[in-house]
Design goal:
The complex is a heterodimer of chains A (263) and B (371). Chain A has 263 residues and is mainly beta. Chain A contains 3 helices and 13 strands, in the order H-H-E-E-E-E-E-E-H-E-E-E-E-E-E-E. In chain A, a hairpin with a 7-residue loop joins strand 3 and strand 4 (95-101). The chains are: A mainly beta (263), B alpha+beta (371).
Chain lengths: 263, 371
């Protein structure tokens, strides 16, 4: 034992040196600035994305793989989104449109081929899209634009030092969550983890960024995500595959009728 | 008892400790073999692909990510008009997930261009013309997608018919989905865009002439770059990041191995103070004591290296056959990498033994005998 301690005495300074190098501090912007920057990044104008969604149900529930096309128009105060299933064949064309403007409640339409077009009601807004753990309202929430922002700590997520930003909605912010915590890699300005809490303070959803890559506009973006709802037996994995920004859309591209065709 | 027997005995005296140290160093070496083998496999795979197609010079804009940025297809005509260019062809390549498969290479090739000529159809046929909404699958791509001739493949919003399965003569080609450039541009919405111009130069063109050609191309395409085929991957920023990451991760694992060996050797020296005192009293020179400790640590390193190479090869083979990598990266199991890994292990062993050896050489026989 004595021998081991004597030999460790020589090894410890080397380890301490390594640890001190690895824990270099990251410069911290203010919470408001950080949130404003991230909000600007989210409001990225017009884009077409394609993603692969794996919905894994535990307990023999199986795995569902979907290829999805997303058309997105995000500006200050308004968001229009269309999600359309491209694959598998038997679900091809299943789609929805969702939009939100200002402080108004979100609205939209659901389309199931060949001809079922129904409104997306407020009762369904918290449901998972296409049977996944990602809800319709998750797509619209821009918690970085909420009134109250605070940095509540730092933590390393996946070997990346992150600032923990806590966002709380103000009076005019329409959301079902009491607060949202996000772990931000301030170097790349990428959100590495998001935790959404209900009014009771209970964790409702956790989204981890599993891959970061350079987007077509040259910025670093999260390109793969894993979603979990505590207490639920499923995990949804989303893998971004292709993205195009500054796409030209017409007004007709974000109408319920646009859901009837894939293009 | 020979010098080497003494070295061996000291390692076998505490077999559990020696084995644990070996595990530590072998994990580091296994990391080197696996990560560097994968990175190098990717590099070689692209090289083989370029050889299989018969490309001498590649024009692209490699400034972002693993896939180059797209540019206007009119560049091909300007390049084709340059002296020292025998043939050109345009390609639009994308990496994307297709149906259930993870990320795959999709290559839209100019119809009638030389990029199609190296392909050997094993089953079915080539597309009839440049406008047929059809794909040819490399053998590994067909396997990954579980497709045969006559099936359809969903790429973006289009369902394209599989008309052929081809041997592309390299792993990267075999893991690729091929279609005509026009169809690819239509399907991806990249009308008029390409991200590669592949060039063949006349036979017997010298290296200096190819360099001149690359300089001419830079003149008409300043944001991009023309590269001799063999240099394409090495100049990719994305690949440089991958290579740096694989080496830095390996380095960390090796540092842990160094600390493990150093700790073991220090304990060995402290445990054998009495024995070293006797050896000094018997007339052993300090230099010989230092050699003994260094030989022990080098042997420990070498054994760890051999075990690590074995583990690394197994890791590389199993990773190479995993769904995310199969058909995309051919793990590089070249003897040079394996020998370098063992050499690294021996050097690591020797470096780890330097301090314990120095400590052992400072012992005085009388004090050592009293301990």
């Amino acid at each position: 034992m004595n021998l081991m301690l004597r030999s460790l005495r020589h090894a410890v300074p080397c380890v301490a040196l390594l640890v001190s190098v690895a824990s270099a501090e990251v410069a911290a912007p203010s919470a408001r600035d950080l949130a404003a920057q991230l909000s600007n990044i989210i409001q990225d104008g017009s884009s077409v994305l394609r993603l692969k969604m794996d919905i894994n149900k535990a307990g023999g529930g199986g795995k569902t793989v979907l290829q999805i096309q997303v058309k997105s128009l995000r500006g200050k105060g308004s968001t229009d989104l269309i999600y359309q299933i491209l694959w598998p064949k038997d679900r091809k064309g299943e789609s929805f449109l969702i939009h939100k403007a200002g402080g108004r409640a979100p609205g939209g339409s659901l389309f199931t081929p060949p001809d079922s077009l129904v409104p997306l009601t407020a009762a369904k807004i918290k449901d998972g899209i296409f049977g996944s753990d990602l809800a319709y309202d998750d797509l619209l929430d821009n918690f970085f634009a909420w009134d109250n922002q605070a940095i509540v700590g730092t933590e390393v997520v996946g070997r990346v030092p992150c600032q923990i930003l806590e966002s709380k909605p103000g009076k005019g912010d329409d959301t079902g969550y009491s607060h949202v915590r996000s772990w931000i890699d301030t170097k790349l300005m990428v959100t590495m983890r998001v935790e959404k809490y209900r009014g009771s303070g209970k964790l409702a959803k956790r989204i981890d960024t599993t891959r970061v890559s350079k987007g077509d506009s040259g910025n670093w973006v999260g390109s793969s995500f894993s979603l979990q709802r505590p207490g639920q037996d499923s995990v949804t994995e989303i893998e971004g595959s292709n993205s195009k920004h500054d796409v030209t859309f017409t007004a007709a591209d974000f109408t319920p009728e646009a859901l009837r065709s894939l293009k | 008892m020979t010098f080497f027997t003494i070295v061996l005995r000291s390692l076998t005296r505490r077999p559990v400790r020696t084995c644990l140290t070996l595990v530590g160093i072998s994990i580091g070496i296994a990391a080197v073999v696996t990560l560097v083998g994968l990175a190098s496999g990717y590099e070689k795979g692209i090289g083989k692909q370029l050889d299989a197609v018969g490309i001498d010079v590649v024009v692209s804009n490699m400034s972002g990510g693993l896939m180059p940025k797209s540019f206007n297809e009119s560049l091909e005509q300007k390049v084709a008009a340059l002296p020292r260019v025998a043939e050109t062809t345009s390609v639009l390549m994308r990496m994307m997930s297709v149906e259930e498969a993870p990320i795959m290479m999709i290559s839209g090739r100019e119809w009638g261009g030389f990029a199609w000529s190296g392909m050997k159809i094993l089953n079915g046929r080539m597309p009839k013309d440049g406008s047929e909404k059809a794909v040819v699958l490399g053998t590994l791509a067909a396997e990954a997608l579980k497709k045969k001739v006559g099936d359809t493949v969903q790429i973006e919003v289009e369902e394209l018919t599989v008309v052929g399965i081809a041997d592309g003569r390299s792993m990267v080609e075999n893991g690729t989905i091929f279609l005509s450039l026009g169809v690819m541009q239509e399907v991806t919405g990249d009308i008029g865009k390409i991200n590669f111009v592949d060039i063949r130069v006349p036979p017997n063109t010298s290296k200096e002439e190819i360099d001149l050609l690359c300089r001419d191309i830079k003149g008409i395409f300043p944001e991009g770059r023309a590269m001799v085929a063999s240099e394409v991957v090495g100049s990719s920023q994305g690949f440089r990041v991958v290579r740096a990451m694989s080496w830095s991760t390996s380095l960390l694992a090796i540092i842990v191995g160094v600390l493990g060996v150093m700790n073991t050797m220090l304990m060995t020296v402290f445990e054998r103070t009495h024995e070293i005192g006797i050896l000094l009293a018997l007339g052993w020179r300090r230099r010989r004591i230092v050699s003994m400790v260094l030989c022990e640590s080098a042997l420990l390193g070498m054994l760890g290296g051999l075990v690590g190479v074995g583990l690394g090869v197994l890791g590389l083979i199993s990773l190479g056959s995993s769904p995310g990598i199969r058909g995309f990266i051919e793990p590089d199991l070249n003897p040079r990498l394996l020998l370098i890994s063992i050499a690294i292990a021996v050097v690591v062993g020797v470096i780890s033994g330097l301090y314990p050896a120095w400590r052992s050489s400072r012992l005085t026989p009388s004090l050592a005998l009293q301990s």
